[in-house]
Amino acid sequence: MAVHALKFGLLAETTAQLDDLTDLVHGSGHDIAETIRASTGCLDNISAVEVWVVRLDLQHDKSVQLMEILETYDVPVIYDDIESYSELGVAERLNRFAEKIQLCAGTGMSNRPVGDAKKAREIWVLAASTGGPEAVGRFLKTLPENLTGVAFLYVQHINPEISPTLQKAIQSNTQWAVYKCDRSQPLLEKSIYVVSPSDQVSIHATGVITPLVGAWEGPYQPSANQVMAKVARNYGKRSGCIIFSGMGDDGSQSCSFMKGSGGVVWVQSPASCTVDSMPASALATGVVTFQGSPEILARQFVYGRHIGATLSLA
Question: What's the fold here for domain 122-304?
Fold first, then answer.
């Protein structure tokens, strides 16, 4: 199976340590975007870095300061502690390092189809509750297989024990890859990420989604309001949301924020919903620019999602 290569930044005390980390990263199938010695303290021109690996002596104030700076960039950081596996062989050390990447830095892609997977340019949230699986399934089934550049985050109010069934239902309606959000991973085009009702997620500006241990705040699990806000904050005009059939008002609180960030808000037309509370609450915000049945939403998504005019189809 193909693995999506990430661009790593390396930060260490010595040139020898940087060379060692370079061998680790290349041995794990990834690329190097930047190598920096701690003594330079220079963290400029690092926008290409998707993941940091650092080996620093945290007894030194300067090293602690560098770690604090890295944490402000909202990019995953792996701390490589050589003492914890100094007795391991090369192969076992590579395995340990690969596990760290999978858990912390976004490569848990063992089920990714073979091919050159690209990061999505646009991220859209599909939000739903009662009646949502059927409506979202119709939407996905209508999308053409050759649509590129987009990834969906599916936020469905559901009990945790039913999540595996939901994922299977989605897979039956699309040729796209469908993933759980149970590990850090890149947001790739032609992919659907099913947000867990158990754990929150963090969305990084580098295009990586990471699970966060901890229950969702508020009455909805998962929370469309929170996911929409995180997507809008990081993707701006390259973000959007479609609110499908559902009970309650989840999503409505973040509609204006998404619109103000340059994103787009659409809804399933209330008349086509099993329960119209969620779309109706979003419509009441005054920022929805399109509504329609799941099939019409899919066609508009393909041919007119960048049109600014307000449209409405039954």
Answer: Rossmann fold (3.40.50)
